[in-house]
Design brief:
By secondary structure, the protein is an alpha/beta fold. The chain contains eleven helices and twelve strands.
């Protein structure tokens, strides 16, 4: 089972960086979200694919026409919070407001219930597991926020599953679709999205995919935009990670989706016998 998802945010929505985290500076940046989203939609239409789109509420409120266009192609729409901030830097009230605001905006635009969610930067850690309770209370039934390995923006390295599971948080359940991992020399390795996908040569991605019964992708509009400006205050590592492999990424994705069958989250959910799926307990 291979699931295709996109996080719809602007090219400057780079986390944990002073100039790009400041919401009040966002209007000073070039607007590239229209052409970048169109590139993705054209790619999906050309290849007869459906995907799940996790959309930042700020984008939805500012450019509702983008959400209407995504919805018109019958793609699933989920929430990516409102301001695209690291959730472990927020308190429970801020998190709840961001989730609620984003859901209400998306539902008002499409007239459809929002049931799916992904945290910016997969920023649910062992310090803010209470986010699951907020998701459940806001009607989210499907989550794609768990990164079962270490990463710069958090992650849950001790999470016992890298395949779909149920999370039971204080008696309430949510369906979890974590990022998939593969093991190399006993260590967890990620290949299915973002900078990982852009950096790794396709022959390796294909090899890893052949060994994986489950793949959860995560792409952003900026992953396919080689002409985007370079953010000057990024350090060398962050700059490399943000801009490596942009020119060939869409062609690489086309190879991948031609070699393997990909579906959206809704379709994947229907293929799973949830009665026989393991439950991860958060008490």
């Amino acid at each position: 089972m291979n699931i295709l998802t996109f996080d719809i945010e602007e090219w400057f929505h780079i986390l944990d960086n002073e100039s790009t985290t400041n919401v009040h500076q966002w209007d000073n940046y070039e607007v590239r979200i229209h052409e970048n989203t169109d590139r993705i939609l054209y790619f999906l239409e050309k290849n007869n694919l459906n995907a799940t789109f996790f959309i930042v509420g700020w984008i939805a409120e500012k450019y509702p026409e983008i959400i209407k266009k995504i919805d018109s192609f019958q793609h699933e729409i989920g929430s990516h919070t409102y301001y695209h901030q690291l959730m472990y830097n927020q308190n429970s009230i801020e998190v709840n407001n961001e989730i609620k605001m984003s859901i209400e905006i998306l539902q008002n635009i499409t007239g459809k219930k929002v049931r799916s969610f992904r945290a910016p930067g997969f920023s649910i850690t062992n310090k803010n597991e209470w986010v699951f309770e907020s998701l459940i209370n806001n009607g989210i039934t499907h989550d794609c926020s768990v990164f079962p390995s270490n990463r710069a923006h958090g992650g849950l390295p001790n999470f016992p599953k890298s395949t779909p599971c149920l999370i039971n948080f204080k008696g309430s359940c949510i369906k979890e679709f974590p990022i998939n991992t593969c093991e190399i020399f006993g260590k967890k390795f990620i290949f299915s999205g973002g900078g990982y996908f852009r950096l790794i040569p396709y022959w390796m991605i294909k090899r890893f995919s052949l060994k994986s019964k489950y793949v959860m992708t995560y792409f952003h509009p900026r992953d396919f935009d080689p002409d985007q400006p370079i953010i000057s205050d990024l350090n060398f590592f962050r700059r490399f990670k943000s801009y490596v492999g942009l020119k060939g990424s869409l062609s690489k994705l086309e190879l991948w989706t031609n070699d393997f069958k990909f579906v959206d989250l809704r379709t994947a959910d229907k293929k799973i016998d949830w009665k026989n799926i393991k439950t991860v307990e958060f008490l």
